[in-house]
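[Discussion] Sanity-checking designs against the backbone

I'm trying to build intuition for which residues belong where. Below is a structure token string of 165 positions. I'd appreciate it if someone posts a full sequence so I can compare it with mine line by line.
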């Protein structure tokens, strides 16, 4: 695929779009629960991803200049992220992080990122709460399309197609 071509097969667009949603899920949740629900619902249509793309783009436009530590519902997102550590952290450590989220969400954000990296929790590795420099529509996974390998972060999701960066 050269730079002017795009990938528009439903199977690959769906996989790319879902990986983008996974990377943005907790960022969106930190921006607002209603936005999160609306975007999650839009992904139920697995044949047309334009609405999902538009909604994510709106969140990005509105919140791109706000640091993660200042997002309005950061604590809610952090409590959800903490759930990924229930089998890898002791009850004491989870309780500490739970209290830290309530008392100092900025510090809790840094600690949870540290734990995600250390424990190498795949689902959280591309989380945009701590990876805000990547574009909201960067595809954070490797995709194999018709014998061609596209490494992570080399494709962008744009509505119902994927494009080379």
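Best answer:
Here's mine. Compare freely.
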């Amino acid at each position: 695929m050269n730079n002017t071509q795009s990938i528009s097969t439903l199977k690959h667009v769906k996989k790319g779009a879902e990986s983008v949603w996974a990377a943005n899920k907790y960022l969106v949740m930190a921006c607002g629960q209603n936005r999160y629900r609306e975007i999650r619902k839009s992904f139920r249509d697995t044949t047309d991803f334009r609405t999902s793309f538009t909604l994510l783009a709106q969140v990005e436009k509105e919140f791109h200049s706000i640091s993660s530590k200042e997002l309005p519902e950061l604590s809610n997102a952090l409590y959800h992220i903490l759930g990924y550590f229930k089998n890898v952290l002791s009850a004491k450590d989870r309780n500490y992080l739970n209290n830290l989220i309530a008392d100092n969400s900025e510090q809790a954000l840094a600690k949870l990122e540290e734990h995600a990296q250390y424990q190498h929790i795949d689902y959280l590795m591309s989380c945009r709460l701590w990876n805000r420099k990547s574009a909201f529509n960067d595809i954070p996974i490797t995709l194999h399309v018709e014998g061609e390998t596209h490494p992570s972060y080399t494709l962008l999701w744009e509505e119902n197609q994927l494009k080379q960066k």
